[in-house]
Write a structure and sequence with these properties.
One of its GO terms (molecular function) is endonuclease activity. This is Type I restriction endonuclease subunit R. Keywords: Endonuclease, Hydrolase, Nuclease. The protein has about 210 residues and is an alpha+beta fold. The protein has one domain. It is built from six helices and eight strands, in the order αβαααββββαβββα. β4 and β5 form a beta hairpin. α1 runs parallel beside α5 and α3 packs antiparallel against α4. The longest helix is centred in the N-terminal third of the chain and has 19 residues. The radius of gyration is 16 Å and the shape is globular.
Length: about 210
């Protein structure tokens, strides 16, 4: 299992992550990161129905205002990782030290939260955002996720999923270059959790 070097400070921008860790955005993002679009296997009917239920539950609780703090991760991320079979051999979940952040919105209201990192494979990371505001923009956590991955001494392509439950983005880091996938949201008509699980299934076989 990879040993993560401590990341004690909150990396708040991609420019800061690039400066600290010597990485740069790929100029050919599509060809650099084809793993989130190619060779994706179709889901079973049972998997599709389970993901539809997860989304249905999320929308139900959001409608009634029951989504507090990290509730979305419990509703969405935990069952998603179970469907991806990350709780079973040969995978081992290992959590890393959380980093805390504060975010001020347009009305100058301050929200607090934390970012947790899980390693499920030597080169596969799950970075979870927990915030007091469920609409917290998950892209704000991408620099920290990149910092976690760049801190690894593994000399091989590394992949990650950054999610706050409601929105999810994949990323790839290889030889000092990185790229992101499109974002996947539970707010769209089509259930984009299908895409997320397909990509997780693809990455776990190559990471």
């Amino acid at each position: 299992m990879v040993q993560l070097l401590a990341v004690t400070d909150y990396i708040s921008s991609l420019a800061e992550a690039e400066r600290v860790y010597g990485v740069a955005a790929s100029l050919e993002a599509y060809s650099f990161f084809p793993e989130w679009t190619s060779q994706l296997k179709a889901l079973s009917v049972a998997e599709q129905k389970r993901l539809d239920l997860i989304k249905q539950r999320y929308l139900y609780h959001r409608q009634h205002g029951h989504l507090l703090e990290n509730a979305v991760n419990f509703l969405v991320i935990a069952p998603l990782l179970e469907l991806a079979r990350f709780y079973d051999p040969p995978f081992l979940l290992r959590s890393e030290a959380s980093v805390r952040f504060e975010f001020e919105d347009e009305s100058r209201k301050v929200y607090q939260g934390r970012i947790d990192a899980l390693i499920v494979q030597e080169a596969l990371w799950i970075v979870l955002v927990e915030s007091t505001r469920t609409s917290f923009n998950v892209t704000t956590a991408l620099p920290q996720a990149l910092a976690y991955m760049a801190s690894s001494s593994q000399n091989r392509p590394k992949f990650g999923l950054v999610s706050n439950g409601e929105r999810s983005i994949f990323l790839k880091l290889d030889q000092g270059e990185y790229a992101f996938s499109d974002d996947f949201s539970l707010n769209r008509r089509r259930n984009e959790l299908w895409d997320v699980l397909q990509i997780l299934n693809r990455l776990k076989n190559i990471a």
